[in-house]
Amino acid sequence: MPEVNMTPMMDVIMTILTFFIIVSMTLTSAKTVKDVALPSTDKQDAIQDEPPDPLVVGVDKKGQMILNEAPIDEVKLGTAVVEYLTKNPKGSVVLKADKKVAYEKVLNAVAVLREVGGDRVALAVGDE
């Protein structure tokens, strides 16, 4: 009765295993260059690059615009947004509108914010 000789198959498996071990060791070893001083970063610089908190403007059920939990008219809102964006050049404005407010009121708020805030106006949505 013929028998299967396992020795050649074991030799091939060990050779392949050895190959992959050597390749994985060479890929994970750190490549270093002598006599090179790499620049370092300061953590304070990284913290300063974070964008500031956005200015949140709301529109309640009645269509009244709200800033800092107080009703505000369109002119004062525009002034407040300009001041915020002047102090925070990388800042953004978020508009949170009640889901029951008329669409025209939201468009009015977006128009006011767009005049002064340009492309840095975002609409907030919720899962409620």
TrEMBL record:
Classification via Pfam families: ExbD
Ranges in coiled-coil conformation: none
Subcellular localization(s) per the UniProt record: Cell membrane
Chief location: membrane
Membrane topology reported for the UniProt record: Single-pass membrane protein; Single-pass type II membrane protein
Annotated Gene Ontology cellular component terms: plasma membrane
Sample GO molecular function, one term: transmembrane transporter activity
GO biological process: protein transport
Keyword ATP-binding found: no
Assigned keywords, A-Z: Cell membrane, Membrane, Protein transport, Transmembrane, Transmembrane helix, Transport
Domain of life: Bacteria
Coiled coil in keyword set: no
Similarity comment: family membership: Belongs to the ExbD/TolR family.
Protein name: Biopolymer transporter ExbD
